[in-house]
Every structure is written in C-alpha cells, then in structure tokens.
Amino acid sequence: METDATGTPDGAGLGGQVRSTVARLYRRFRSERPEGSLGDTALEVLTRLHKHGPQTLTQLSDHDRVAPASMSQSVNRLTSAGYAIRTPDPNDRRKVLFSTTPQGAELAHAARTQRNAWLDAHLHALSPEDQNTIARACVLLGNIADS
Amino acid sequence: METDATGTPDGAGLGGQVRSTVARLYRRFRSERPEGSLGDTALEVLTRLHKHGPQTLTQLSDHDRVAPASMSQSVNRLTSAGYAIRTPDPNDRRKVLFSTTPQGAELAHAARTQRNAWLDAHLHALSPEDQNTIARACVLLGNIADS
DNA sequence: CATGGGTCATTAGTGTACCTAAACACCAGT
DNA sequence: ACTGGTGTTTAGGTACACTAATGACCCATG
To answer: Where is the secretion signal located (chains A, B) (predicted)?
Structure first.
C-alpha cells in the first residue's frame, strides 16, 4: 500500500511497520541473552517483584496479559531455582504472594544490567532528540498495548 | 525523569523501557491472533515470500536473524499446511527455493489485514505528530535491531 | 578426476513460553 | 451447609527458538 518515506521494511502501513519492528527487536533481545540464564519473561517477572514488592499470581498475570496458568509456570521456574518464594496471603488464603529471595534480587539487577548493555550502548549513541523520540514512542505504544 | 540506565532510581532507563514496551506489545500481538491460524513467525515468513518472491532458506533465516534450523521448522509448517512449496534451485542444487501457493498468497493478505486491524485503528486515532514520532522511532529501533 | 573443505538444508533433541480445560482450595452469601 | 465465585495449580498441547549432527552438493587443488 502506501510506501511512506520512512524506509518501509516489510509491512504495508504504519501498523505493519510497528509490528515488524517489534518482532525484530524481540528476537534480537532473545538472541542477546547471556547463556545459562533465565528466560526473558521469567526475568521480567523477577524484576517486577523486585521493584514493586510481593504480588499475587493474578496481579502478575494481569500485568503481562497472560493466562494465570502461564504465569504459574513462569513463577515455578523462579521458585524452583531459588530466586523467588511463595507466601500464603494471611488475609485470603486462596491467594499466594510471590517475592524475591536475596539471590533473586541480586540476579534481577545483574542480569538486567547485562541484558540492557548493548541496547543502552546503541541508544546512548543517538542524539538527545532521537532518544526523546523513542521515549515518547514507548509511552504511546505502551498505552496502545494496555488498551 | 529517568536519565540513567545503570543506577536507575525508580523507573527503568530508556533501554529497560524499550525492552519492556517491546515485550508487552509482542505479547499483545500474539494474543490478538485469531484462533486456528498460523503463528506469528510463520505468517511473517509467508508475507515475505508473497511480497519478495521465492527465497532460499538462508535468505529467510538471515532476514529474521534466526538459525537456519529454526527457519526450516517454520517453513515446514507452511509447506505441510499447503501454503508454500519447495522448489530445488536449478543452478545450485544445494539450495531450495520457497514460494507461496495461491492459498498461501491469499492467506497472507487476509490474515495480515485482520491482524493489523486493531493496531491500525489505535494508531489512526493518534495525532499525525504522534504517528510521525512512532514512525521515526521504528526506523531508529529497526536500525539498532539490525546492527 | 578424486578427495576434501566449505556451504545449504534438514533432522533430532531440548528449552521457554504461551494456551485451554479441568481440578482444587478457599471465601462469602443465602 | 450448600452454592457460586475467585485464586491457584496441574495436565496436555502448540509455537518458536536453540545446538549438534547428518546428508547433499559445489568447487578447488593436487
């Protein structure tokens, strides 16, 4: 369709362009993953626990727009590796609160820094306006993702 | 605001923000997928074949930054579903050219349109300025992904 | 022209991450 | 004490990526 002047990769309109860029970045992130470490999702969850404190399974699954069952699995990888623990909610015993262990907190920080290293390097090489453009686009696209 | 990536105070640095946004969008795309249809990767490959004509396995895997073996699997899903076919390259018989069948071409167009529908709807609701911001960010991030 | 090194594609086996469906435990209202 | 709703888990299945190993082919060199 409309081949706009922005160097269209594969998709037709802006939607296709966004989709294609996101898919490419996502794969790139995955390939940049240090060996022997946790998966992308598990690490995101760990980071979230570290930053926002203990949360229930449904809180986590809602945030990631994932079925509770999927999140249960992801969290299992964390708990069985000793990076997170379950605690029954004293007020409502159907609920389970997940929180990081000290090792989990440490890993969250270390792994995240390492993983963002190459990305940050590239981003810092851009002009401040370009960085600002990306920051703004993240907000806009984040809103769409949450809609 | 967050101007730092290594010792982030509250929010993540720009790198973390980008990573998080991309992951969320990616999951959202996946969840928006109509049932019984092909996966995201397979569909991207099919679209690419449809737009750029027959290609070899390595061309496809290079483009998606994926191991050849992974791409082999993906195209297997396409061929066994009747959406693509293999043709031996007459010039170099180590190579195999993949191309879409008529049904594949049809599906590529239909599915892609359907998949971009909600995304395009949201994007068109933004101001032209914001759309431009996103387009620019896509180019910038696309370059980083390809680096 | 044969052999051997490089390239292209595939198969086999593994791991992560998602899904649905179904079970189980618990809370609250009638 | 049922009953319906909520929160979590288990079981089974799919998609997509990886590494390692294999087979098929091209080309160059001896």
So the answer is: none
Could you tell me the two tokens for B129? 């300025």
User: Rounded CA gap, A123 and A130, in Å?
Assistant: 9
Question: Do A11 and A77 belong together in one domain?
Answer: no
A110 touching B (Cβ < 8 Å): no
pLDDT tier at A12, thresholds 50, 70, 90 = low
pLDDT in tens, A16-27: 889 889 988 988
CB contact under 8 A, A27 and B64: yes
CB contact under 8 A, A10 and B40: no
Q: Is this structure's pTM higher than 0.85? A: no
Query: Which chain B residue lies closest to A120 (C-alpha atoms)?
Result: B15
What pLDDT is stored for residue B93 in this prediction?
Answer: 95
Q: Please tell me whether residues B22 and B78 are part of one structural domain.
A: no
Instruction: Please count the structural domains in chain B.
Output: 2
Q: Are residues B82 and B125 in the same domain?
A: yes
H/E/C letters for each residue in chain A? CCCCCCCCCCCCCHHHHHHHHHHHHHHHHHHCCCCCCCCHHHHHHHHHHHHHCCEEHHHHHHHCCCCHHHHHHHHHHHHHCCCEEEEECCCCCCCEEEEECHHHHHHHHHHHHHHHHHHHHHHHCCCHHHHHHHHHHHHHHHHHHCC
